[in-house]
Amino acid sequence: MKKLYGGMEGGGTKFYCVVGGGKGSILEEVRFPTTTPEETLSKAVDFFQKFDLSAIGLAPFGPLDLNPVSASYGSITATPKPGWSGVNVLAAFKDEFNFPMAFDLDVNAAAFGEYSLNPENKGLESFVYFTIGTGIGAGVIINGKVIHGLTHPEAGHMRLPHDIKRDPFPGTCPFHGDCFEGMASGPALARRWRKPAETLPAYHPAWEQEAWYIAHALVNVILNLSPQRIVLGGGVMEHEPLFPSVRTKVQKLLNGYIASPVFSGSLEGFIVPPALGRRSGALGALALAKAKL
To answer: What one-character-per-residue DSSP string does 107-165 give?
Structure first.
């Protein structure tokens, strides 16, 4: 009998749970809003209990404690999401299931999904996936492995140049104010312009400013990690004109410094949208589950 795997992408706005064979195919799926930890995790557990699973991949929003020897391993740590700090997501599933479980950050799962399920990415030695939506985060793949360290990369909270005269907006991050997430996430756009980002017209000045912040963040990552490809996902990046604007600004900021043929062109093959679309995280969680066996 074909093995089945579960995958859960737990975002700050909604949870997305899937069951499939681990190679990008989905047998069944469900989405529901992120409410209280008790209600949200119970819905996820109830969904997976309907299936005979071999393993499951859990990929909630963070920050997460990913240290297996830590007393709080499997927990969400200092999140701005009310009511979720200290919630042990992994423990909630271990109380209900007795099979292997992979546990990682949602954006790390998305990075692994894009890397392992898209043939164009699989041969790369260095690869970065950014999600720019309700929050901002980055998953980093080096030599086929998701990078962890002291905790996990927090590129969404890098500090960027902020010209107060040009942009007096103070930012929305409760920890850092005007970090990348505080200036360029979906909630930051909504608060700055007093309307949801998806309702802003294509000609609105918000998009030029957004591309400016994203380009600065990508240049930092390019200079620090030297990735061979950067994927930009998340709800904000569904505004497709951002891509050419970001690519142009990255070229301008680098100013010819990187000696690679990649940067002699338009960067259309270097800064790209996700091949898996909105399913990157959930399919990545499935792939992590399969890799656990």
So the answer is: HHHHHHHHHHH-HHHHT-SEEEEEEESSSEEEEEEETTEE--SSS---GGG-B----TT
Cα–Cα distance between 260 and 42 in angstroms, integer?
49
Note whether 194 and 101 are same-domain residues. no
Range of the domain at 157: 119-274
Phi-psi region of 220 (alpha: psi -120 to 50; beta: other; left: phi over 0): alpha
Shared domain check, 197 and 141: yes
Which tokens in the block code for residue 80? 């701005």
Through-space distance between the first and last CA atoms of the chain, rounded to whole angstroms: 16
User: Residue 130 domain-assigned?
Assistant: yes
Average pLDDT over residues 94-109: 97
Tens of pLDDT, residue by residue over 29-56, are 999 999 999 999 999 999 999 999 999 9
Q: Where are the alpha helices (DSSP H) in the chain?
A: 37-48, 89-94, 106-117, 119-122, 180-184, 186-193, 205-225, 242-254, 280-292
List the CATH number of the domain containing 76: 3.30.420.40
Domain contains 62: yes
**3-state class percentages of the chain: helix first, strand second, coil last, to nearest 5:** 40, 20, 40
Contacts of 200 (CB under 8 A, 6+ apart): 189, 193, 206, 207, 239
Rounded distance, CA 209 to CA 50, Å?
A: 46
* Same domain as 225, residue 133: yes
